[in-house]
Amino acid sequence: MNHNNIVAITMGDAAGIGPEITVKSLANKTVYEICQPVVIGSASVLAKAIEVTNTPLKINEIISPQEGKYSFGTIDVINLDNIDIKTLQQGKVQAQCGRAAYEYVKQAVELALNKKVKSIATTPINKESLKAAGVEYIGHTEMLEGLTRSNDPLTMFQVNNLRIFFLTRHLSLKDAINLMTKKRIYDYIIRCTKALQRLGVSSPKIAVAGLNPHSGEGGLFGNEEIDEISPGIQLAQSKGYDAYGPVPADSVFYQALQGKYDAVLSLYHDQGHIAAKMTDFHKTVSITNGLPFLRTSVDHGTAFDIAWKNIASSVSMEECIKLAAEYGNKFEEDEKLFE
């Protein structure tokens, strides 16, 4: 077999829904038609997940991705054997789960950096479990940034053909507005353009969302568009970037979904999240740009309240794997993204 599109799937927090959605995803034959999936995780936990979900799958323990069978019906697993199944408390915060989840990501990163896998698809991890384990990182993005020594990775959401970038993320709205400067708008238009080019979009059209109602209506409803946002867009345009806006936020996402723009630069966390999740909550996938490899992730948490009850949906995980496979084939490293 030509191992040209191996996707490493990290099992995530063993107490959450990660093992279940991993198993359910790999019970979908179409996954094997587009890539070679290999799981980095615990074989004993995955075996338990197979039992709970009643899926007709077998486990093939391997040492390296190149040993995988990649045959539907068999899950190839690089078994780190770092979960004590006897003491695993399903749906609970546990240090062993936080430590193990970190080790899965670390192993996947090493494989990707050494070109043993094309891309990484991650299942949910839990911030409290990481903290209990003494892991220095609070989430996937921080882990990947630290493990690869990358500079400020860029998050993009994709749902259907709608792509959304974020100028700011986990900040109060007041603090986010203070960061909406001409320079930051300009810099992010450049970063978004380069990120899309890495994913195979040759001449990206980037729309910048407005902040105020009707993008400020010429200053009637706020001056941020006049003072900072529009000048940032105009500067990018003067440098040859195909940027538009500010486009009123109540229409820009719909227009992008219809194909008018290749992506939208959302100005703050909820502006972009609401648009993505209202389009299709279950199929929204997070893609991390600015790394030496492609990484996709489900856009939901460990869901301890429903874990190990065979009710968690694998739709988002399946979409996550499919996008990792699709973009993994197009992805080309561009060192300029790390500047």
UniProtKB/TrEMBL annotation:
Q: Which co-factor is required?
A: a divalent metal cation
Molecular function (GO) terms listed? metal ion binding; NAD binding; oxidoreductase activity
Keywords per UniProt = Metal-binding, NAD, Oxidoreductase
Which Pfam families does this one have?
PdxA
| Signal sequence, renumbered to the chain | none
Q: Which domain of life is it from?
A: Bacteria
| Keyword check for NAD | yes
Q: Does the keyword Protease apply?
A: no
- Family affiliation: Belongs to the PdxA family. PdxA2 subfamily.
Q: What is this protein called?
A: 4-hydroxythreonine-4-phosphate dehydrogenase PdxA
Annotated source species: Lysinibacillus telephonicus
